[in-house]
Write a structure and sequence with these properties.
With 164 residues, the protein is α+β, with helices and mostly antiparallel strands. The protein has a single domain, classed as Double Stranded RNA Binding Domain (2-Layer Sandwich). It starts with a helix and ends with a helix.
């Protein structure tokens, strides 16, 4: 018991010595850094859903601060039929959602940070068309949430590095 406490203390000291600090903790400036990013419109219905999810992650319930950065996002979605039966009907589908993004300083055209994120989600194709549509919409929503989380984390990490 005493050895495990010593190991835990030693691990904490090692993390403190290497300069580790939490992104979202007290010392983390992620929420403040993201609040100065202006989000451009994203084309399409799913693109607008992605923009709203990013807005929630960047601004939360706060009003956006004066923008210092501009984020441009390109969004694509591809559906693949999987699980083909002998009668050539699919029983499963996979959606690949991809977001390419470019971060620029306001008033500048040169990109400072580029990235791409992908989300793979799947759903069952059922005999009832409405149930299949509902499953596809649910899968799309799950994928968009994953994309927005990954993009917000990457951009927050980049901006945190710019503040140091």
């Amino acid at each position: 018991m005493m050895i495990s406490r010593r190991l835990a203390l030693l691990a904490c000291l090692a993390l403190a010595a290497c300069g580790f600090h939490p992104l979202y903790g007290e010392r983390g400036q992620a929420a403040e850094n993201l609040s100065v990013v202006s989000l451009d419109n994203i084309e399409g219905k799913d693109g607008q859903k992605l923009r709203l999810l990013l807005s929630d992650r960047f601004y939360g319930s706060r009003a956006p601060a004066t923008p210092e950065w501009r984020l441009e996002v390109g969004f694509t979605s591809v559906k693949q039929q999987l699980g083909i039966r002998r009668d050539d009907t699919a029983t499963r589908a996979r959606l690949t959602l991809k977001a390419d993004f470019i971060l620029r300083r306001m008033g500048e055209e040169e990109p400072v940070f580029k990235g791409s994120e992908r989300s793979f989600v799947s759903y069952n194709i059922l005999t009832d068309p409405y149930a299949t549509l509902a499953a596809e919409e649910n899968a799309t929503e799950r994928g968009l949430v994953q994309l927005s989380d990954m993009m917000a984390s990457r951009i927050a990490l980049y901006l945190a590095g710019q503040q140091q």
